[in-house]
From TrEMBL:
<dbReference type="GO" id="GO:0005576">
    <property type="term" value="C:extracellular region"/>
</dbReference>
<dbReference type="Pfam" id="PF02872">
    <property type="entry name" value="5_nucleotid_C"/>
</dbReference>
<dbReference type="GO" id="GO:0046872">
    <property type="term" value="F:metal ion binding"/>
</dbReference>
<dbReference type="GO" id="GO:0006196">
    <property type="term" value="P:AMP catabolic process"/>
</dbReference>
<keyword id="KW-0800">Toxin</keyword>
<dbReference type="InterPro" id="IPR029052">
    <property type="entry name" value="Metallo-depent_PP-like"/>
</dbReference>
<keyword id="KW-0964">Secreted</keyword>
<protein>
    <recommendedName>
        <fullName>apyrase</fullName>
        <ecNumber>3.6.1.5</ecNumber>
    </recommendedName>
</protein>
<keyword id="KW-1199">Hemostasis impairing toxin</keyword>
<comment type="similarity">
    <text>Belongs to the 5'-nucleotidase family.</text>
</comment>
<dbReference type="GO" id="GO:0000166">
    <property type="term" value="F:nucleotide binding"/>
</dbReference>
<feature type="domain" description="5'-Nucleotidase C-terminal">
    <location>
        <begin position="339"/>
        <end position="501"/>
    </location>
</feature>
<keyword id="KW-0547">Nucleotide-binding</keyword>
<keyword id="KW-0479">Metal-binding</keyword>
<keyword id="KW-0378">Hydrolase</keyword>
<dbReference type="GO" id="GO:0008253">
    <property type="term" value="F:5'-nucleotidase activity"/>
</dbReference>
<dbReference type="InterPro" id="IPR006146">
    <property type="entry name" value="5'-Nucleotdase_CS"/>
</dbReference>
Amino acid sequence: MLVVWYILAISGYVNGFALPFEGLYKLDIIHYNDFHARFEETSVDTPSCRYNNNSCIGGFPRLYKEIHTLLEEKPNSIVLNAGDSFQGTYWYTLLKWNVTQEFMNLIPHDAHALGNHEFDDGPEGLAPYLKALKAPVLAANMDVSEEPILEGLFIPHIILKRKGRKIGIIGLITPDTAKLSSPGKVKFTDPKEATRREAEALYRKGVDIIVLLSHCGFESDKEIARDAGEHIDIIVGGHSHSLLWNGKAPSGEVVEGPYPVFIEPTVDKDHEVLIVQASAFTKYMGNLSVYFDFRGDYVKWEGNPLYLDRSILEDQVIKEKLAPYAKRVHEAENVPVGSTLNTMRFNDCVFGECTIGNLLADAMVENANNATSKDIHYMSFIQRGNIKASIMEGVVTAGSIFELLPFNDRVEIFDIEGKYIRQALERSVIDAWAYDPFKGPWLLQISGLRVTYNVSLPENHRITSLEIGDSKEPLDDSKIYHVTAPLYLANGGDGFTMFKEGKHNERDIGRDQKIVEEYIRSHSPLNIQLDGRVIINS
């Protein structure tokens, strides 16, 4: 027996675990998340690059090039995609899963997570993509027993081997997918329970380094690490588009935390879970090296996301492969859907009522009436952050609508008490960048009501007048009103938690791009004007 143990010791292993004299083990991880169909260059603020200058960053050819450059430097790296490869540019609208799998398969992924947007065309739109992918797709908290088209197309975890060590990778998808997308009868279970179950199974198999590939969002990842992370070493995240970075971000974006963030699990204060995420849209790519001891315990780390600006070259072969598809996409983007007599600028929406906000809010009200009854008075709300581009005077194209609303969010109707509407509008004018004149990040654009603010008053007491439509009837805090809004906002996004708290009788009535396109077609030429529905006094 001693002879056998000695032979194992020479090889550096006993019972699948590394021995003390082996030295530190280095695990290299290349990761990205929330690709969102960025096959061409993007910019910090818009889905496509409008000008051929240094504002153009990212894109698949640059991502591909940098991944392969890092693999040449660190050939044992693990390459991970944390989900949401679908949706976000006209490429996906036109070409769907097929072009996505073609180019994703050119990157030597070790694993993909599933994002909520992967279900935007239902299980039937996802199944052929999963069948075509070469790398395994991981989802430990997803039950497809009632959607057999997806059975056998994903697994909860994999075990990789790098330099003789076993590396476990567990996949998670946000349980909010049921509300955010179109998963049919797919059920999404508690990510914490799934993490514990799969991590314990891997640990029993002698896997002492475990990575969680999560499309649950940064805040959820921290909770998972805290409550279920005793066997988890690293969480590679996505979904929340969080930039974790050390120092000031070169893109000028808000940094949500250092790279990596460290979380201590509640049940094991001697253990630390490292959390990383790399923004979104191929603007950044994660580059992490973690050193472990013989027990699989973290010792030290190196790395930071890489900013994929024009200092990083694009792969020209990949650009040539993309060119025929790009031609089709650009032709489709330029199809006219209507016209406008005036320019509607999205930047105006930080100051108060804006014409493009009126367009979007009015379109949602009209759609809600068409979907239900024209006798119902609807109010609509859309958050400033959901309005991503201007519409210029002249022809309005399919592509310009997509630029305006790139995420093609669902829109729902619901009932809600007036007090929650008042709370939402009060939140609309807090945390301003400036108050005289007003300039703020959360300002809601509205239809079906009129509001006047005095922003010199204390927060949550700034509404001086709030009336229903043109009736002069004041909003009643205890009365039930009918509302339509993008699902992201209705579910409490951007801090508007009062909508999520108060809404009931919810119903999905379509997607924002289609709603706005139909409104523009039926009302062209547009001549949207300001009408005093939002007044801000300083």
